[in-house]
Amino acid sequence: SGPGYSGGGGKIVIPAGIRVVLPAAIVLSASMYGIDISCGSWSSAIVWTGGNSATMLTMTGPAGGHSISGCRFVLSSSQTGMVGIHVNATSAALTKTRIVNNMMDGPATGIRLTGEASQVTIEENWILNYATACIVATGNSGGSSVSKNHCQGGAAGSIGIDFGGSPGVTMHANTIQSGNNITGYRLNGTSSFSIMDNYYESGLGTGQIDRQFINCISCIGGSIFSNTTTGAVLGPVMAFDLNSSDIEIGPNKHTCS
Q1: Concatenated DSSP letters for 110-165?
Q2: Residue 228: what pLDDT?
């Protein structure tokens, strides 16, 4: 793997205007805890020079308290299958990770959570031109907060924010701006979820909020209020499976550009 720092409580600072070249992933492994990676501004660049289908920054458990903030992840237009940041708690739990105010352009997936990656803060990140998903969680990311992120330029068939199996997550004030045939927000097997003050903008098309979402709410007694849709969209604004429960929706807004 790439650079590694053992022990806990360390801080890695990348000053404004400095470019860090990565031929392999930065890995915060099980022997580390509380590592803080901070960039002076988005003029600082973490530049990937390795191969395709790789991850630029990986965190693995058991540990917690890592943070990455203020950094710009740079990929070339020819690189495919890339993940920007992966909180990988598949083998052991990770908790209280913070991913704040970072930017990346052109990943397959911007931020990925797997396994028991709980109480993660994902806030004020800009993820552009993603192929598969802007932010995705496939394990139990209970107690996490996903707020004020900007997902723009998703490819056809992509998903903006995708969470599965995670209770007690808040998804507030996020913006998704993409073309046709994408899903804005998707939940699978989640509970006690709050989706409020989000904005979704798409190209013109035909469609509606996913009918599974409507059926799910009417059956399990969640609440929907003050959601505004203007125009039409090809692909669901929000899609929930029938195993999701206790979901609070609104106010949110969708419009067509």
Answers
A1: EEEEEEEEES-EEES-EEES-SSEEEEE-S--TT-EEES-EEE-PPTT-EEEEEES
A2: 44
Q: Would you state the pLDDT for residue 250?
A: 63
pLDDT at 9: 65
- Name residue, tokens 């701006």: 177
- Catalogue the long-range contacts made by 98-101 (C-beta closer than 8 Å, 24 or more residues apart): 98/66, 98/67, 98/68, 98/69, 98/123, 99/67, 99/68, 99/69, 99/123, 99/125, 100/67, 100/68, 100/69, 100/70, 100/124, 100/125, 101/69, 101/70, 101/125
pLDDT digits (tens, 9 = 90+) for 84-143: 999 988 888 888 999 999 999 999 999 999 988 899 999 999 999 999 999 999 888 888
Q: What is the DSSP string of 18-84?
A: -EEEESS-EEE-TTEES-EEEESSTTSEEEE-S-SS-EEEEEESSEE--EEES-EEE--TT--S-EE
Which stretches of the chain score pLDDT less than 70? 1-9, 63, 180, 202-246, 250-251, 253-257
Query: What SS3 string covers 178-244?
Result: CCCCCEEEEEECCEEEEEECCEEEECCCCCCCCHHHHHHHHHHCCEECCCEECCCCCCCCEEECCCC
CA distance 194 to 251: 10
Cα separation, 257 vs 237, whole angstroms:
14
- Mean residue pLDDT across the chain: 78
